[in-house]
Amino acid sequence: MTGTIVATSGERLAFATASIKGTRIGTTTDDSGNFNLDVPVGSHILYLSFTGYKPVEKEVIVKAGETTSVGTVVLEESSEMIDEIRVDGMITKFSKKESEIVARMPLKNLDNPQVYTVVPKELFTEQIDVDFRSALMSSPGVANVVLGVGSGGTGLSMRMRGFSGANGAGAIRNGMATNWVSLSDPVNLESLEIIKGPSATLFGSTLISYGGLVNRVTKQAFNGTGGEVGFSTGANGLGRVTMDYNTPLNSDKTLFFRLNTAIHREKSFQDYGVNKTMMFAPTFTYLVSDRLTLNFDLEYFESNRNTTYVRISGTPVTNLDELNWNFEKSYTSNEFLSSAKVFNTLAKATYKLSENWESQTALSYSNTDNNANYLFLLLRESAPTTLTRMVMNIPSLFNTLQLQQNFIGKFKIAGMDNKLLVGLDYTQLQTTDTRYRITSFDQVEINAEDSEFDAGQAKQEMASSAPFLRNKRSRRTYAAYASDVLHVTDRLIAMVSLRFDSFHDIVEDYDQTAWSPKTGLIYQLVDDKISLFGNYMNGFSNVAPGYTEASPDETVAFKPEHANQFEGGIKFELIGNKLNGTLSYYDIQVENKVRSVTGEDNIAYSVQDGTQKSSGFEMDLIANPVKGMHIVLGYGYNDSEYTNISENLDGNRPYSAPEQVANFWISHRLTKGQCEGLGIGFGGDYSSDYYLNDANTITVPGHFKFDGTLFLDRPKFRIGLKLNNLTDKEYWMSDYDAEPQSPRSFIANFTMRF
Questions:
Q1: Measured between alpha carbons, how far is 702 from 124 in angstroms, rounded to an integer?
Q2: What three-state secondary structure class fits 262?
Q3: Per-residue model confidence as pLDDT tens digits over 588-601
Q4: Predicted confidence band at 169 (pLDDT cuts at 50, 70, 90)?
Q5: Alpha-carbon distances, residue 379 vs 317, 324, 366, 591, 655 (angstroms)
Q6: What is the pTM for the complete model shown?
Q7: CA distance to 85, 125, 670, 708, per residue, from 721 (Å)
Q8: In a 3-state reduction of DSSP, which class is residue 158?
């Protein structure tokens, strides 16, 4: 007897139970939710169950000489178990590391040689994260999350394993590409998947860094009616309303609808500045048959906010503390805002070809319409106490289209279990932007009382000037990839993966191909509890042609830049999954970097022999030591260095890359008595000192910031209070440009569930 057990969302339920009632015949489902039972001929009652879901009984008749299939059985969520999980510290949600996107196939964490962390929405709720940046800062291994700029867009940049993640701070959504430098809201987040290391083999090179990527997993519609409405208020005029509502749309309960939406209004912690956003995110799930599931979702996000940056040239100071910066001053106005309209949509069809093979077809489209008004506060060595205000206006349009086809199967090779992924991918990226700039709009002394900014005059001057630059991108990538996971023995697992990438830049008129391999080994010291792992992973970046000293009049084609990682460590899931974590050491070597050299004619030429290295140790830990308590810890040590870039930079550390980063969160709630649901949480994030520039002449002081919450969480409502930056620490973060961070602030939240 065979069958498949799925949740109402369409998710395959691994380790669900299938048994014959009144007998000892039973088994559990595999990673794809499939089961196989050896059942005698006759009439039987099949009992299907999974923790947190209502069990199902089915009458089946087994005939001689035939294999009986019960098809796909859908289990509905149990409200009683959901309440119990909530009261019991949400152990299941916090410890779950299963993902179908990290390996692009169902693969248990202990069977996967790659390092990753899954941060659930329950943590964001407990921490009262009201913006996407706060959610990212809760993620182990992620550092220096700031508002970044690029081509007229505004998004979040970050650092992972010593590398910039300006292209990977949430630009991957449900495993598919969106636009970079585009913002989002956490209201429709189911989880964040922090995927470590160069991952081009399965995710390409468009929106990831060599240090890793962040995949946004969004909420999906399911079979059930209910939701919640939340309201948050607090310091700086915060006003935020959210809603999450889900319902079936037909009597057969095969078509489900879910809507998440948020309206956010907030002033800056400084004297001027605003942040106004809105998100509307509907999603549909349609169970067409026991073989075919369709998912469709979209996001519409609007943002209007100040984008102000401190930029330092030369060495007017050697440490940002020397500025004696007044953190309450913004040097801007509420009328000088960057606006963005972000539209993301995804359609996915999952079809069960047979008991062992599945087809996944996905199409995503992203459009971002920006009108950026950037204000740069320039500090020069020649005038160390004077800020020159440079203004820029950059209207831009981003479009990303991706089509992906995956086939996932499992079978045996010489008696060994085998999982195979074969995929095809087409990605198209198009952008246009026009740039206007007033390099020296005016000047003001640092911390001067009179620092009013005339936004109207700045806009008028830029509108009457000619653009200094127009950019256009049009890029297409065709790719094919395969990944195979072989259980050599019950405990030894091998992974071999390979990608072929064909890249065409239409505007620059060049083509480039790249091969990206990935291999790994897992040995389970203790079955399903402790695994030793090692991996080799590859990432690459396409490089445009350039002029060399040997060819000063005609461009020369370059090879793609490559990063190669070797990593090893240990993964563990112990005490009924109440203690799990990863310890690893990695070494990343980047080669084929294009660097600039001065020829004999004193003209700068390009040479493709640059190198860079990054190595370090990482740890993440999730623990539930007692009922109602959970602990989340993350730590990373990184040693990064330019090894062959230029005489001035060789041996230097890349800018904005801290040597040490850490974050933690500890919370406990009462699970019995009249005060059931009352809880407290405490956590923070740490960064060591780092450099503002590649020359390593200006230091950004590190910080240790603490946050605390007090909450009452009941099945029908939740009340939460939070203090961010408990010690009122003044600190900076940077991504080439420096940004002062918020002092102590207060947030109150009330959520009603129905």
A1: 24
A2: strand
A3: 999 999 999 988 88
A4: confident
A5: 9, 13, 37, 34, 18
A6: 0.87
A7: 22, 11, 17, 8
A8: strand
